Amino acid sequence: MSKIEQVLHSGNSHATVNRDPNVPRGEYGALDLKLSASGRENREFIGTGLHPRAEQLFSGAWSACYISAFEIAASMKKVTLPSDYSVDIQVSIGSVGAGHCLGAQFTIRAPGLAKEVVESLAHQAHQLCPYSKAVHGNIEVGLNVVTV
Amino acid sequence: MEKIETVLASGNTHATVNRDPNLQSGEFGVFDLKLTAPGVEDVEFIATEPHPTAEKLFAGAWSACYTTVFGIAASMKKVTLPPDHSVDIKVNVGQTGTAWFLGAEFTVRVPGLDKDVVEKIAHLAHQICPYSKSVRGNIEIGTNIVTA
Q1: A133 and B102: CB-CB below 8 Å?
Q2: What is the pTM of this model?
Q3: What is d(CA A147, CA A108) in angstroms, rounded to the nearest whole number?
Q4: CA-to-CA distance for B64 and B76, rounded, in angstroms?
Q5: Residue B107: which of B141, B61, B57, B65 has the closest Cα?
Q6: In this structure, are strands A32-34 and A44-45 parallel, antiparallel, or unpaired?
Q7: Which residues of B touch A67 (CB under 8 A)?
Q8: Which of A57, A85, B15, B73 shows the greatest Cβ crowding within 10 Å of its Cβ?
Q9: What domains appear along chain B, each with residue ranges and CATH number?
């Protein structure tokens, strides 16, 4: 497994379950990404471009899947999740020696639950989520649990 | 490494180097993703939910990075790429038994070059690209080379 020595860019995502489709989404709301990279003279990547976007896309994909897996893990363990729980993922790209590698930091907020319960759900969700499995053993994945 | 037995959803991206920022981007052009999931009654994931979107995001992140690296790999091998080369990535989520896994299919198009030269560049790019390294050994990756 490669560990990032120096972070170059990061992309953040924040995933919650929204039961009211009319609720305003605010800062983390509907992602509306224009992914062309303007202002670069001779190298513009369509739909792609700059690395912070790539990391944001990946963290968006991962959090979409992971939060579903987190719910499944909770129901398997017969844990009732608070309605305002959330998963934030920061995917970073960094350098290690002359190469580049990715790393991820999860922040799971589940107000009112015991920390070790949330940790055990988070661990199980990583066993279920195909994105977590795809990077298992290859990148460093950190976890913060917030229960307030 | 786990292989997908049944594909459940796929996300495609197409990446090229665009040297004219005013160029119309067409079907594969500027990504403009509204990622809320309408029509899901009681569980809507902000910026997330339906799997095809997650796979498309991941394919977008990966192709953004891989296309850049492909150019680097070509220059390391002192190969001049034609301006119309492109990389398409299809990321699948699928089922094996009761578990879910990812898989990816690359289509690298480099008109005018020898197939084995393109294969070598594609292989080298997978050694360099942090997204490829993140999933190495964990998911199945196919590569089609098109030189016409």
Answers
A1: yes
A2: 0.73
A3: 8
A4: 19
A5: B141
A6: unpaired
A7: 45, 48
A8: A57
A9: 6-17+50-146 (3.30.300.20)
